[in-house]
Amino acid sequence: MADDGKAGASSSSLSPAPWLWATSSSSEGGMYDVFLNFRGEDTRFLFTDYLYHGLADVKKLEVFRDDPGLELGDEIKPTLMEAIKRSRIHIVVMSENYVSSSWCLLELEQMLKYSNNGTKRPVFPVFYHVTPAEVRYQINTKSKEAMEKHEKREGKDKAEAWKLALSTVCGLSGQHIQEKHQEKYETEVIGKIAEQVSAKLLEIKQQLNRFDSQFEVVESLLNLESCDTVRVVGIYEDQGGKSYITTFAFELYYKIKDEFRAASFVVDVGKHLMRNTADDGLEYLKKELLSDMVVETKQELQHKRVLLVLEGVDSEEQLELLEGMRIVDWFGPGSRIIITTENKDLFQNYSPVMNGVELETHCIREGEMVGSNWIVKEKHVVGFVKDFIDVINQLREEDSKRRNVVSIVGMGGSGKTTLAQKIYDSKVVREVFPLRAWATVSKDYREKEVFSSLFRCLMPSKPIPENEQELKSKVRRCLNEKRRKYLVILDDVWDIQVWDKLKDYVLPNKNNGSRILVTTRNDQVANYARSKEPHHKLLLLNEEECWELIYNEVFGGEECPPDLEPIGKSIADGCKGLPLAIKTTAGIVAKRERSEDEWKKIKNLLPHWCVAEDKEGKKMMEILKLSYDDLSEKMKPCFLYLGVFPEDVEIRVRDLIEVWIAERLIEPIQSGRSKVAPEPDDIGEQYLKELVDRNLVQVASRRSDGKGVKTCKIHDLIRELCISESNSNNARRLSFPRDIGSYACSVTCHQSCTYSLFIYGDAKGWSHHIPQDCRVNVLYIMGWIVDLTSEKNVENLKELKSVKFLKIDRFYPNGLSKLESIQTLHIMGDVTPRDLSIIEGLKQLRHFRGVEVCLLVDKDGVKNKMHNLQTLLYVHVDSRLGFLLNNDYFPNLRTLGVSVTEEERHSAEKTFSSLHCLSNLQKLKLELPISESFPIPVDKIAFPSNLSKLTISYFDGLKSQDMNALAQIPGLKILKFNDVSCIEKILNCGTDRSFLQLQVFIMIRVRVKCLTLKDGAMPCLRRAVFHDCPGLELKDLPQQMRSLGCNLHFTPHDDVDELMMIEFSKAFRH
């Protein structure tokens, strides 16, 4: 960093971050990971401090930030310029006053010099409240005047050099921060920068790990122990692609530099030697070298042991110029000269002697580096950069709770073992954990094999004991030596019983930082092992990463033919991000002819792995099937039923569970105990959670509480497994008619003679697909039925006497109340109010979801209560609803949605006063009219005592008094407002000791200017969501909400036409 003012100067009103005066993490004489260049006056107390914290404290990088001892008028110290040379990555934070700082510009010039304008070392520009054009062209008056001052003080040549540097850095790809006073936004950008820097550093360090043995070879050629003569070594690379020769040279330079009395690393030697004349080039080189070694004449070096690295020598002509300088004669005995080049042929025909000294040469990619298999193998860790860093940090962090287990969780084939292996082999793990051991547990757990594997890692030179008890005791004794920290990796742990058998032998009972890393498909195993939270869950790879992995597997270091790249990317996309599928596919592609026709065949095969003849494809499906085999017998049919839904569709969890119940995959529990047995819906929730924990089902979206699953999905390969297993040995067979809708699936159970039909798209002719001799359990139609209200269609529906689950999109036929077996009835999309007779049937009904239904009831029929009904959405608030509530007609109702119209305003208040009769009601949705003519007095609503979630929509006139009334609901945990307007500019959301149980507060499209919250209100609040609220800014939220950090979700309002938004909400409120 450079700063032309006092180190602590700042115009910011914010308090400095607690880590403010930590200048740089130590590089211990080696390389820094990152050098931060910034204008302290603009960003020290704000952005740069948090960026430094994110890099140094969170990502554990070696970061050089600044020298707080610098004062105005000081020259930049040599140590700071040295830090620029010693840094692997440079970050430049451009800000409003950046150009006015000569120190910033001097540093920038040096950074671009040693990075060759960002081509040999990464340079990341960050534009903080400025645009690249403002910096590049000094558009604003302040920057223009500053550059004029620089020119007067430093001279025209220096000013032009700085302008060129600004132009160069502004042409590099970087991050832009334009929004002011948006802490969350800036934090997200800092996160992106940290990830980008970490990814780039990991790439660099992976390459350096490959160079480990090469450092030793070059050091042996240099023969550092000998001080008799001068030695010259030339190093080069033998392969194309990205060059790491400069990176290697810098790392080597700082590795051995301290063994010499003077040292210099001169970059771009070839470019400077070829200046206007050879003499000019040689003079420049001489000047640069002497300056670097802090001497005035070359005679001062003749008796010193010197290290000189000449980087970027590209031709024999340049070698001859260096030889003509007789540079070897400049230095004393024991000196070493290293010449680096990207020209692999440079030394082949050149004389092996330079100025009488033997010229040794070495290729840094010879030996163990040769061979595409090794390179490809290393590149298999595509996409795991963040995962690697996060798990490493969990392993390294101190934990006051002494939780010594870290877990990697993911579905089969997601790369858990690959990531664990990379961590196990990493240099940082070898440094932190002197003792390391690995055992693969697997589903077929064999105890002696596991302990034998651990023994081999811990005591490789000793024979494995034959006696199993002796074997286990020796492993335990070795691990519990107090002197050394250990890391044990238990790969592929399936169940908690196995963990119980292992933990007493491998769980550290010494508080010295030892760790166990567990990989598992089952989140419940990680929970049981008391793994550090959050468990590290592996996500699927994105499209770019999929293609990168296939590209590396298939082509190695070669180029992909341009005509194959589009179809290759299409094949990669078809793998849907699962590393196992990508690797398997790449193996098939690599063995086939490289032609469009052959690759198209592979692409067409991807959706049908279960019928593939290829061994790799079959093996992959067997690996995935292990997760299915491990399910309980009760859960297997529930899992297989997921195969009925189309590829890539988000499945509503409530639909899925209700279909399971309709198909009798979940039965009510008959306990015979006084304690109430759980409802089938609750059992279904537990089944789904288990499938999510086992990573067979993916969470697509969460409920408003941020915890429960709202929609889910499955990977295409998991879906194929469901279909394959259903049709091979399951009671229910799936088939896919092609002559109806855009997608259709039928489920036939021959044992019970039942049939179910799922249709997406035009459902014309749906009734023809139902066998005459089968009872229909489920009819699920997501789309249009041609001639919706035709008598034939209505009659066909009425004939489905046995149907238990009926979901129809877009219309509501009369007479469906005669479906005596119906348990779930969804009528979606029709905004015309309909009548629902509740006395003619529907006694089995559990869930009704429709649009503004009016309940028809005969007063003499109230004795037949609807004991099974749990969900009723949406019904009109009228006298008939009030009558039913007062007569306890819905004793077990858990979810109710009501809608009020102006015509019902006289009866609404009275009906609302009867809501307290619903003693089991947990969720209430109120749709109140958009009208100021008759406000519903919220304090007149008798909310049920067990209510835990309340949603209020389309209400004009919300005020603080209403919030006070809502605050009195004793067990309210979730409060949500949709399309609501406040009549007060400042809405007081709670007084002291109000909303005592509230955990989640949500406002979506609520028109409000400011919210307040008194101390002591909402003490349990853990999540707040504000989406598209006109007039509301982040700064206008109460401090209690702004302090929620990542649990506060704030999306600013889009400037759209307000009237259009209101009309849209009216039309599509359901």
TrEMBL record:
<dbReference type="Pfam" id="PF01582">
    <property type="entry name" value="TIR"/>
</dbReference>
<dbReference type="GO" id="GO:0051707">
    <property type="term" value="P:response to other organism"/>
</dbReference>
<dbReference type="InterPro" id="IPR000157">
    <property type="entry name" value="TIR_dom"/>
</dbReference>
<keyword id="KW-0611">Plant defense</keyword>
<dbReference type="GO" id="GO:0006952">
    <property type="term" value="P:defense response"/>
</dbReference>
<dbReference type="InterPro" id="IPR042197">
    <property type="entry name" value="Apaf_helical"/>
</dbReference>
<dbReference type="GO" id="GO:0007165">
    <property type="term" value="P:signal transduction"/>
</dbReference>
<dbReference type="InterPro" id="IPR035897">
    <property type="entry name" value="Toll_tir_struct_dom_sf"/>
</dbReference>
<feature type="domain" description="TIR">
    <location>
        <begin position="30"/>
        <end position="201"/>
    </location>
</feature>
<dbReference type="InterPro" id="IPR044974">
    <property type="entry name" value="Disease_R_plants"/>
</dbReference>
<dbReference type="Pfam" id="PF23598">
    <property type="entry name" value="LRR_14"/>
</dbReference>
<dbReference type="InterPro" id="IPR055414">
    <property type="entry name" value="LRR_R13L4/SHOC2-like"/>
</dbReference>
<dbReference type="InterPro" id="IPR058922">
    <property type="entry name" value="WHD_DRP"/>
</dbReference>
<protein>
    <submittedName>
        <fullName>Disease resistance protein RPP13</fullName>
    </submittedName>
</protein>
<dbReference type="GO" id="GO:0043531">
    <property type="term" value="F:ADP binding"/>
</dbReference>
<dbReference type="InterPro" id="IPR002182">
    <property type="entry name" value="NB-ARC"/>
</dbReference>
<keyword id="KW-0677">Repeat</keyword>
<dbReference type="Pfam" id="PF23559">
    <property type="entry name" value="WHD_DRP"/>
</dbReference>
<dbReference type="InterPro" id="IPR032675">
    <property type="entry name" value="LRR_dom_sf"/>
</dbReference>
<dbReference type="InterPro" id="IPR036388">
    <property type="entry name" value="WH-like_DNA-bd_sf"/>
</dbReference>
<dbReference type="InterPro" id="IPR027417">
    <property type="entry name" value="P-loop_NTPase"/>
</dbReference>
<dbReference type="Pfam" id="PF00931">
    <property type="entry name" value="NB-ARC"/>
</dbReference>
